[in-house]
Amino acid sequence: MPxxxxxxxxxxxxxxxxxxxxxAVGASARYGASLVWPTVAGGFPWTTLGVNVVGCAVIxxxxxxxxxxxxxHRLVRPFxxxxxxxxxxxxxxxxVDIQRLVxxxxxxxxxxxxxxxxxxxxxxxxxxxxxxxxxxAWRQS
Length: 141
Hints:
The chain is an all-alpha fold. The protein has one domain (14-140). The chain contains six helices and no strands. The termini are far apart. The model has no long low-confidence stretch (mean pLDDT 91).
C-alpha cells in the first residue's frame, strides 16, 4: 500500500468499526420494523416510508444534541449518525419500491411516493430540530 494511503487510513480503523457495528444495529432495527409492520404484496410501502421519516426525525434530534448540548466522544457521531441511522433508514429500498410501483404500472403512485418521502423526510428533520431546540431552550429558562 502506498505511503499516502497508509497515512490517510491511519487511525480510521475505529471509525470504520463503529460505523459497521452501528450499521448492523440500524439494519436489524429496520428489519424488525418490516416484521412488525409488513408491507402487503402489491401494496403501498408504508413501512419504508415510516422508517425513513422516523430516522430523519431522530437524526434531527441527534444533531441538535451533539452540536448544542453534549460534547460527544469522537466515535458517537459515526456510530449513531452514520452507522445506526444510516443502517436504519433505507433509501435504497425506497428506490426499489419506486421501481416496483412503476413496473406494476403504478407510475403515478411511484411518483407520489417519491415526492411524499422527500417532503416528509425533510419536514421530519426540520420539525425535530425545531422542537428539540425549543425544548432545550425551555429547560434552560
